[in-house]
């Protein structure tokens, strides 16, 4: 985003609210909260003139699609959010859950996200599932990097198809996540989750789509 681009922003009267839905990749397992991608996204947007409140996060390490939906219901949130992100599915893959069940539950979560955005699909942003097989943990798991990659690709094919079909923004961070196989700076201290460096890259990939959604037409 150039300095010229920032002049197109339709500055809201109040700061934008942001709801981030997901699992460990959303809460930023093994890194400081300020380093997780929702907080870095908010920071990057603030830097270009889109004022965003502290993100509200509904996510937990290990959650699958149905557990995220249960977690959302348990929060009993009311009202709407200006920005909603959704990143979910790695634990469905890790546990060997049905890919068709994932499709059904992911579609339901898309509708939930749209509802939180007040029905405005332009304010919902889906992020693809990263490939944990490229991490030191993945390499030592005995499941095979190629097998994990193939399964992650299958789950991402579904979430991308359903996201595009619903007319929602989709950001593919998966190829970059595979750089962790050779660049250990992209991996957190637990050897499995992304580092703040990788999350910064995710936020940078996502920010332009959010920027456009809140710029003057």
From TrEMBL:
What residue intervals traverse the membrane? none
Quote one Gene Ontology molecular function term: hydrolase activity, acting on ester bonds
Q: Which domain of life is it from?
A: Bacteria
Entries under Gene3D superfamilies matching the protein: SGNH hydrolase
Q: Cite the Pfam families for this sequence.
A: Lipase_GDSL_2
- Domain SGNH hydrolase-type esterase span(s) in chain numbering: 20-199
CDD domains linked: SGNH_hydrolase_like_1
What's the protein called, per UniProt?
Lysophospholipase L1
- Name the source organism: Pedobacter westerhofensis
């Amino acid at each position: 985003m150039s300095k010229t681009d920032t002049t197109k922003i339709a500055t809201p009267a109040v700061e934008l609210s942001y709801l981030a839905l997901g699992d460990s990749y959303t809460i930023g397992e093994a890194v400081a909260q300020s380093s997780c991608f929702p907080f870095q996204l908010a920071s990057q947007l603030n830097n270009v003139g889109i004022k965003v409140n502290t993100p509200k996060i509904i996510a937990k390490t290990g959650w699958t699609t149905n557990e995220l939906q249960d977690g959302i219901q348990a929060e009993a949130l009311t009202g709407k959010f200006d920005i909603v992100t959704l990143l979910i599915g790695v634990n469905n893959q890790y546990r060997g859950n049905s890919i068709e069940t994932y499709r059904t539950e992911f579609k339901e979560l898309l509708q939930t996200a749209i509802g939180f955005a007040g029905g405005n699909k332009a304010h919902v942003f889906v992020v693809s599932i990263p490939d944990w097989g490229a991490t030191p943990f993945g390499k030592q798991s005995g499941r095979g990097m190629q097998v994990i990659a193939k399964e992650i690709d299958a789950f991402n094919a579904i979430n991308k198809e359903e996201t595009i079909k619903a007319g929602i923004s989709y950001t593919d961070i998966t190829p970059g996540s595979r750089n962790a196989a050779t660049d250990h700076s992209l991996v957190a201290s637990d050897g499995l989750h992304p580092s703040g460096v990788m999350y910064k890259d995710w936020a940078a990939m996502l920010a332009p789509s959010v920027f456009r959604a809140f710029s003057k037409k």
